[in-house]
Amino acid sequence: MKSQLFALGAIALWATLATLGVSLAHVPPFLLTGIALLVGSVISLPLSGFDLRQWQIPKATLALGVYGLFGFHFLLFMALQHAPPVEANLVNYLWPLLMVVMAPLFLVGVRLRPVHIFAALLGFAGAAIAIVGRQGASPDAASAFGGWAWGYLPALGSAFIWASYSLLCQRVQAFPTAAIGLFGLVSGLLSLLCHWLLEPSVALTTHDGLLLCAMGLGPLGAAFFLWDKALKLGDARQIGILSYLTPLASTLLLLLTSQSALSWNIGLAAVLIIGAALLGTRA
Fold first, then answer.
1. Reduced to 3 states, what is the DSSP secondary structure of residue 162?
2. Measured distance between the N- and C-terminal CA atoms of the chain, rounded to whole angstroms
3. In terms of Cα–Cα distance, which of 248, 237, 251 is closest to 274?
4. Which DSSP letter does residue 146 get?
5. Contact 42, 159 (CB under 8 A)
6. pLDDT for 185-203, tens place per residue?
7. DSSP output for 81-128
8. Whose CA is closest to 70, among 217, 193, 229, 170?
9. N or C: which end of the chain has fewer CB within 10 A?
10. Sequence-ordered list of residues with C-beta below 8 angstroms from that of 248, at least 6 positions apart, any chain
11. pTM greater than the 0.70 cutoff
């Protein structure tokens, strides 16, 4: 039960990412991610009692952390630049499904039951309805579907990276959760390097800085620490299915902050995702 609470905490923070992202849409994505990850890495200081010896982890573990945090965001940004955003986002949200079905491949003694697969597919269906429905009001949404773009490959790659990172964290030598701060620090510096190489420079306002701090302390900071605790304590299959609450909660928050009306597709998505979560956590 404690693992599910940690997972729900991470999901709640990730749900704010889209709303914060709307307010920071003018900030180049690698710059945004780099600053936010650096801010988020500071959380590890009080978490470790300001004992940086908890950052002394094997190089292979650090490589895994950078693979997860930096690799996921790098491929996702590539996907969003070279594929319709609706479809790229949907492909990216295959990661909870991949996390469920790949669990027996990565974790010793873990087996899949039909209920896990059914719940994961049910959750993906709900996520698809929530994501596509959120874009339904856009005049470009309908025309986005039906074509091929190579950006779907990095979208799938980003989904695989986050699913495999989440599972492999349970395979490596045990490390303190505070070490996630080192993952964020290195990944943030790499993101800033990508900004310098690939993106135009921009001037940030004080308001931008406050929002970036909120993003770093929340969805690109504390969420990773909570996620790590959830994975250390719980069943990866159940946590993966719970993760489908993220696009639903994100969509609901966007609707509330924009004062938009709820639509039938959000209600249907909620029924499917909550049903999947109940099935998965009881399996």
1. helix
2. 13
3. 248
4. T
5. no
6. 999 999 999 999 999 999 9
7. HHS-HHHHHHHHTTHHHHHHHHHHHHSTT----HHHHHHHHHHHHHHH
8. 193
9. N
10. 126, 127, 130, 266, 269, 270, 273
11. yes
Mean pLDDT of 160-169: 95
What's the token pair of residue 121? 């597919």
CA–CA separation, 40 and 88 (whole Å): 26
- If you ran DSSP here, which 8-state letter would residue 50 be given? S
Task: State how far the Cα of 262 lies from the Cα of 251, in Å rounded to an integer.
Answer: 10
Residue 122's closest CA among 226, 238, 235, 273? 273
Residue 183 structure tokens: 């993952």
d(CA 222, CA 180): 10
Q: Which residues have a Cβ under 8 Å from the Cβ of 38 and sit 6 or more positions away?
A: 184, 185, 188, 189, 192, 216
Domain edges within the chain = 2-282
